[in-house]
TrEMBL record:
GO molecular function: ATP binding; glutamate-tRNA ligase activity
GO biological process, one term: glutamyl-tRNA aminoacylation
Lineage, broadest ranks: Bacteria, Pseudomonadati, Pseudomonadota, Alphaproteobacteria, Rhodobacterales
Record's protein name: Glutamate--tRNA ligase
All copies of domain Glutamyl/glutaminyl-tRNA synthetase class Ib catalytic, residue ranges: 3-285
EC number of the protein: 6.1.1.17
Keywords: Aminoacyl-tRNA synthetase, ATP-binding, Ligase, Metal-binding, Nucleotide-binding, Protein biosynthesis, Zinc
Gene this chain is encoded by: gltX_1
Keyword Ribonucleoprotein: no
């Protein structure tokens, strides 16, 4: 078993991160497996070295140890680029010049009271740029690149996509979650796989990194459950193994709102400064 914790160094770790990291760590340790760390720093405008250092400090303080040098997404650009080029040569990608306003206009929104369709990756792209570019050319570096989902699903050639999910507790019996492949086109659509300033996107890099690190079990928050369908589709497309998934409940504040990076009030560093112990944190998250 190889599990991982994959935080973004864009703010302090809070109780929700502690829960995820402790679950993944404990799960690997319980069966003599491996626990790895990955720093998801593709958002260069928000990632900061001091947050990365704080991640290491907080995890060590919690008693979490990792079994290899952490990997950083900013060091993995060649892998992302090569996957993008492969998909480009298979004619499954296209460059897109739309901004959010263009997308809303094409969706004929916003109309009073009519909400456009959102998928796990945000607004479902109406396809404006899909057929604008000849795909038989060199890879268009420096462009926003989208996946032509209908073509991708056809290339995968399966009627259904599925993955193993245990939910909670994480050692619960796994069950298959199955999605008809055709649903992915309508409920997720043409997602962005590469940004202008960075050759990659969260979905592409997470899938490539989990495979590169040999992750067998992904433990993460239930907020990413819908995104897992995207990851399973990308794994099928890129011929990568699909790990088991364990989506856990989200830790919420007193008002029932899920914790966000800006919830400094629930930052582990703040509890530390106030004299809490790692055992207190475990108890607070219900472990
Ligand atoms: N980097 C993501 C986050 O901090 C987690 C990614 C994942 O578990 O796949 O929310």
């Amino acid at each position: 078993m190889i599990t991982r914790f994959a935080p973004s160094p864009t703010g302090p770790l809070h109780l929700g991160h502690a829960y995820s990291a402790l679950l993944a760590h404990d799960m690997a340790r319980a069966c003599g497996g491996t626990f790895l760390l990955r720093i998801e720093d593709i958002d260069s405008t928000r990632s900061r070295p001091e947050w990365e250092q704080q991640i290491y400090d907080d995890l060590q303080w919690l008693g979490i140890t990792w079994d290899a040098e952490p990997i950083r997404q900013s060091d993995r650009l060649p892998s992302y680029k090569s996957a993008l080029k492969e998909l480009w040569h298979r004619q499954l990608l296209y460059p897109c010049t739309c901004n959010r306003k263009d997308i809303l206009a094409a969706l004929d929104a916003p109309q009073e009271g009519v909400e456009p369709d959102y998928g796990p990756d945000g607004l479902i792209y109406p396809g404006t740029c899909r057929d604008k570019t000849n795909r038989n050319t060199a890879y268009p570096d420096g462009s926003v690149i989208r996946l032509d989902m209908a073509k991708a699903i056809a290339a995968i050639g399966q009627d259904q996509l599925h993955f193993l999910e245990t939910g909670e507790p994480v050692d619960h019996k796994a069950q298959f979650i199955t999605t008809p492949a055709s649903d992915i086109t309508s409920t997720i659509g043409d997602i962005i796989l590469s940004r202008k300033d960075f050759p990659g996107s969260y979905h592409l890099s997470v899938v490539l990194d989990d495979a590169a690190q040999g992750i067998t079990d992904v433990i993460r928050g239930a907020d990413l459950f819908e995104a897992t369908q995207i990851h399973v589709a990308l794994q099928a497309l890129l011929d990568l193994p699909t790990p088991r998934y364990h989506h856990h409940h989200l830790i919420r504040d007193d008002n029932g709102k899920r914790l966000a990076k800006r919830d400094d009030a629930r930052a582990i560093s703040k509890y530390r400064a106030e004299g809490a112990t790692p055992e207190d944190i475990r108890r607070m998250v219900g472990l």
